[in-house]
Each structure stands twice: as structure tokens, then as C-alpha cells.
Amino acid sequence: MAVPQPIRIKVWIPSESPTLSDRERERLMTAVDEAVSEVSSLLSVRRVPDSLLLNRDINKYCKFIWRNSSTVNHMKCGRAKENYRFESCFCVNIPDEHLNGCAVYPHPEHPVPTVLRPEGAGVPDTDFLLYVFTHSTDKCRAESSILAYAAHCQADSEGRPLAGTMVICREPLSMERYTHERYVQTVIHELFHVLGFSKELFSRWKDCSLSSQAGVDCWPYGQVISTDEMGQVRLYSPTVIRAMQTHLNSTHADLGAPLENKDVGSDGLSSHWEARVLQGSIMAALLVEPSLIRIDPITLAALQDTGWYSVNFSRAQSLVWGEGEGSQFGSLSTCHNPSTFFCTDSALGCHYLHFHKGECLTDPYLDGCHIFKPLANASECWNEENERSGMKEESGEIYGSDSRCFISNLTRPNHSSSSRALVAGHCYRHRCTGRNKYQIQVKDSDWSNCPAGKSVEVSGYQGFIFCPDNRLCKYSDLAPPTSRQKTDNLLNISASIESDHDVKEKDATPHPNLVPLSSVTVSKPEIIMAAVLSIMAAFSLSAAVLIYRKCSSARVRVHAANEPLYRSQFPLTQYIRRN
After folding, report:
1. Which catalytic residues are annotated (predicted)?
2. Which of 20, 78, 222, 417 could form a disulfide with 24 if both were Cys (CB 3.0 to 4.6 A apart)?
């Protein structure tokens, strides 16, 4: 058998797609190209040897099938339907040149057929065919927050999806708040769904653990989804279990990856990871700013366990959330306790990656657990422009590409409010001196060592800065957006996935039931330190960016996107255009 090679994803623009403006088309094609290239660098398959041809549904074109097993034409079409016109792939008509032919056999014993449709030429050099349909559909108009939605529609004899359609709502493409990064991530997320990470496809996954090649000598798992003793639905497959054990530093022998319990359908299943446990994953139900989302090892492990792909794990991105926290991390019995990831009070702090200032909030997917989410305005420490609007002069804040969020109550001694210093997240410069070792700089101060897990004082200020442990100068693939990447009010346009596969945006106003922020006052160093340590024990993932919904009976979705921190090793896909 051929050695697996990077999957060739061909993009086809259907003839029924409306004409886009030059600006819309450039935005769409650039984002799709980059996402397809990235996925091709992650997944390899045994390639389709010839041109890819999709199948026709015999139940659509055939009125009568010969079912007598003793006949020559057993299970072949005996009579055609007069009104048969086309095959479809979720909202798109499949061109005849992409399809196998079809014929009828008028007599059960005569093998000579009458051809209804000839075999198409097929699509060359293609392992997966993605129809991209950009339009203001009824669904887009009915729910203006939807960005896109998608579904797979055909599979090969081993169950691997061969084709799917992604519907991209047209209006967001033309809006000023459009961001390229968000759409790249949207397409990647949706491609992962249509390629295998979907509750519609879990039952088709193949166990290839004894196989020397992906997709060869495999057999069905039978069941990869089960509910644990606490009622949490989990995905249990070999590579996923090992990835969870590694990530949480656990020897638990049966540690499946939890699925979301808030966007389930009638079958009780979700196609997203549980928000409390796998925040920051590209397949979590709530997505945040693109720079905070990771193509993580657990998601790649799931794609490996489909049995259809050989996964390039060297391109996995660090998933910091919950790392090393043990098998009970994120459970309802533990998430209400203050920790370095969860918070318990309405307070000001830092997002756990320390790119943003944050406030302690919850959302419908956290089951009452609270995490630090970016502030609505001027939360990005790395954004130099925030220095004008967000800087607190008395605390010595500095905004810039090398600035990060630190829990602090630092203030200048002569400031009028110094007796009531607020313990909260503040922006200061940092530079790495080693793994998990760094120095910090406050306005008008020299560089000072900041020992991880300890607090430091700064000359010319009163109060303390707490130095986070195992967050800064540890992950080489974590970085804030570059100066050319604009947030475009991204944090003010949060969204969540309300069902399985659609991506939506909506206002990021705080939940009305959330407790308002409160300040922390200190008067003695001991009290200051206690407050700092208490709040520092509560860092967590930021505001949601996308909403996913179900499209008709299909399972689909779409995401907000971010420009990958790495470049693809493979050329961009070619586009097939129809006039």
C-alpha cells in the first residue's frame, strides 16, 4: 500500500454561488487557502489513486431495484425515476463531472444496461473535496450572528469522508470588523469536523493500532463514547487516552477526553470538548481571540484515532490549560475551588496566558465555574495602543509586544489612593533569562529578576508584583499577535456554540447574573501578600468568540480564525472555478 501523504483538499466554488466583490473574494480565498494548507500539513492519508469521483444515491435515481438474489442483476436498478435531476452535498448541487455514472437494467437477467448518466471525469489530485458556498442564506439572515456552517456528505468504503460543504455567510465578509485570522481558524475548525471530529462520525472510527499504515488492516472500535461514573460523557480511544494522561500528568488508566454537555442533541452527544477541561482547544465549544486558541495534541490524537489519517504531532501547539493538574481537573467537584486556573470571586486578575488583563466570570458552558476572561476594553498588555486608554500611571504600567499581565498592587508612594491599592492584573514588560525564568520592568525602573511563584517589590513603588509559575518563558510556541494583527474589537464580539456546528457572533456583554467587580484593599505587607496569592490562584480562559449551531439535519460548524504561528510546509491548494 502507498505511504500516507499530506491530504489534498480541493476547494470548489459551486455555480450557484453568487458573485462576490473583489474584496470579499480575496478575503475568502486567502483565508481558505491558508486553512487548507495548514490542515494538509497536519494530516496525511493514503491518497486517492485516480481522480476523485463521488457516488450517486441509487435511492434517488432508481424507482425499482432487483432484489431477488438469484437474478443476474441483483441489487441493480431496474427502473429510473422520471424526476431525477441531481445529487446534492448539503445545500450544493454536485456537478455531474464529479460523480460516477448511473444506469438501469430493464430485465433481471440481461446484464446490458441503459446508461442514464455517464461517468464524470472526476477531480484530479484530490483526497477531499470541499464545496465553499458563500451566500446570505435563510439561516444567515435569520441569525445574523452566524459566520458559517458545514457538513460532510460522502465517504469511502472505509468510512473516511470524501466531500463536504461549507456555507459562509456573506455579510461578515464585507464588514469592517472582519479579521483574516478569525476566518482561517473558522475553516480549520470546520474542516476538522467534516474530516472526522463529529458525533456523526464517532461510530465509524477504526482501530488501526496493529496496522503499519493508516487505514490498512483496521476494524471498527464499536464504541468510543461512554459515560463515566460522574455522568460525564467522554471519548475513549487509545491515542486520546494517552494524550490526556500526558497532558494532565495522570496514570489514570481510563482517562477519556470529556465532551461538552451543553450543546448536545437528542442523542446526548456533542462534537466539542468540555469547556471546563479543555479550554483553549480549537475544538472547544467556546472560542476566544485567535491568538489564545491552540491546535492541541488531544484534538490531533482524536483525528489519529479515526483510523483514516496519519497525524503530524510535531506541529501540535501547547495546550497550557490544565497542564499537569491531574485526572480530576475541571470536574464540578473541584472547579469551584480557587486554583491557578479557576477563580471564585468577582475580581480583577489575568487571563491564564497572561496576554490580557481579566475579570472573574462564568458562561453557560462552564456549569457555574468561574475563570478570568479578558476585560472588554484595553485588556491586551501586548497592544501598545492601549497605553493611551488603559494605562494606570500610578501603578507603573507599560504596554507593548513584550508586556504581559501580572497580579500586582503596585503604586507610587505619593499617590493619593496608595492606601487602598487594588490587587489586580497590571501590564509590565518581561524578558526571558531561561526556562520559566524571567525579569520584569515597571515604568521608570530597571529590569528586576522575578522568581516564578514568588512576589517581588520594585524600587520607587510600594506593594508587590506576583511572578506566575509555569506560565512565562516556558512555551516557545506561545506569542501574542504581531503588531500588524489588529483585534478589531474582537473581544467585544464574543460568541458561543449553541448547538453543534455553526459559528456565530454576538455581543460580549457580561451575563446579567454575574456579580459586579469588587476591589481589594490592603494596609499591611502580610495582607497584601495573602490577597495577591489568593487572586493569583485563579487564572483562566478568556471570552468566547464564536457560536455554533446545527444546520437542518446536518452536523456542521465553523469558527473564528487566527493566523497560525507557523507556516505550512505545503503549497496552497488550487481552486477549481465554475463559470
Report:
1. 190
2. 20
Going residue by residue through the chain (579 aa), what tens digit of pLDDT does each one get? 578 999 999 999 998 888 899 999 999 999 999 999 999 999 999 999 999 999 999 999 999 999 999 999 999 999 999 999 999 998 899 999 999 999 999 999 999 999 999 999 999 999 999 999 998 889 888 877 678 888 999 999 999 999 999 999 888 888 877 889 988 998 999 999 999 999 999 999 999 877 766 667 788 888 899 999 889 999 999 999 999 999 999 999 889 999 999 878 788 899 999 999 999 999 988 767 888 899 999 999 999 999 999 999 999 999 999 999 999 999 998 998 878 899 987 789 999 999 999 999 999 899 999 999 999 888 999 999 888 775 667 899 999 999 999 999 999 987 665 445 789 999 999 999 999 999 999 999 999 999 999 999 999 999 999 999 999 999 999 998 863 343 333 323 333 333 345 544 433 333 322 222 222 223 333 333 444 444 444 333 332 223 233 333 332 233 322 222 222 222 222 233 332
CA distance 340 to 234: 24
Tell me if 193 is assigned to a ligand binding site.
yes
Alpha carbon 303 to chain centroid distance?
A: 13
Give the SS3 label for residue 420. helix
CA–CA separation, 316 and 191 (whole Å): 16
pTM: 0.82
Please identify every residue annotated as catalytic. Answer: 190
* Side chain identity at residue 7, one-letter code: I
272 is in an annotated binding site: yes
Q: How many C-beta atoms lie closer than 10 Å to residue 481's C-beta? A: 23
